[in-house]
Amino acid sequence: MPPAPITLSPQTGAIAAVTLTLPAWWRPLLALLLVLLLAGCARESRSASPAPVRELVFYSWAEDLPPSLLEAFTAETGVKVVYRTYQATAEAVHSIRSGSVYDVAVIENQFIPELATDGLLAELDHRSIPNLAHLSENFRELVFDPGNRYSVTFNWGLTGLVVRDDLTPGQVTRWADLWDERFAGRIQVWDLQRTLVGIALKSLGHSANSENPTELEAALERLIQLKTRARTSGYVPDLAEQALADGRTALLFGYGGDLLRGRKRGLPVSFVIPAEGAIQWIDNFVIPAASPNKALAERFIDFMLRPENSARIVNEQHYPTAN
After folding, report:
1. Mind listing the domains of the chain with CATH numbers?
2. What pLDDT shows up at residue 28?
3. Residue by residue, what is the 3-state secondary structure of the chain?
């Protein structure tokens, strides 16, 4: 094949064009080569795209969401929910601070401002959570997270006294009854530090949110006394039920769900709102900043906020949601 002719520009003398002439039998081979190259690029592009997410890690109290609802999320999205549990919110906060990775966590309200300030929570994109529209006005713009920038209230309730009526001589009416000598050795308390401090403060007639050093010191002394007459452990619903059923526990501080599980088991139990005042708790969905699946996490929260799913949570878990 003769060399391709080269044309020079008459103005500059530079090469203006190169004409390459190929024999006719080269053309189909060249076309085939181009097809193979394009196919290779397509394969490379597909292999470079991220693999679809196959699991979401949810971190909360044991038995906080119905298994049937998690299965429904998996059926809709194809994403498996890995359910990891803790026995105290302080444990969960420590785990998040230590670098453990979760996609959605349930955190009590008092821990959210510090986690957000320290950059450990992702800011929520409300456009990806349209079911926020169903959130009750009572749970919007709360002081611990104005604008719901980092959290969405999941459920809430009251902390009170759960009492075995047949094992308590006389009437239980106050937080102070946890220190009554009649019940020494027959009290179960949970290792929930913030709640315990609030209970001790209330039993002394102070606000559960007191920051007064003298009052806090008195509450600490009160808790040291309680430790000598009560059994303690991390909170798990099954443990609460067993504590009420074993015949050794006359009263414990607990929740409405503990009462209902005890009654379902046929136990003579009551839920007492102490005369000094109950303590409200609020649990919230958050997305830890370390989550690699923020969009999926927002989809999970939105799924749980659907009215029909919120109703299922209430009916199966026995705690009110914020919807």
Report:
1. 55-156+282-317 (3.40.190.10), 158-280 (3.40.190.10)
2. 53
3. CCCCCEEECCCCCCEEEECCCCCCCHHHHHHHHHHHHHHHHHHHHHHHCCCCCCEEEEEEECCCCCHHHHHHHHHHHCCEEEEEEECCHHHHHHHHHCCCCCCEEEEEHHHHHHHHHCCCECCCCHHHCHHHHHCCHHHCCCCCCHHHCCCEEEEEEEEEEEEEHHHCCCCCCCHHHHHCHHHCCCEEEECCHHHHHHHHHHHCCCCCCCCCHHHHHHHHHHHHHHHCCEEEECCCHHHHHHHHHCCCCCEEEECHHHHHHHHHCCCCEEEECCCCCCEEEEEEEECECCCCCHHHHHHHHHHHCCHHHHHHHHHHHCCCECC
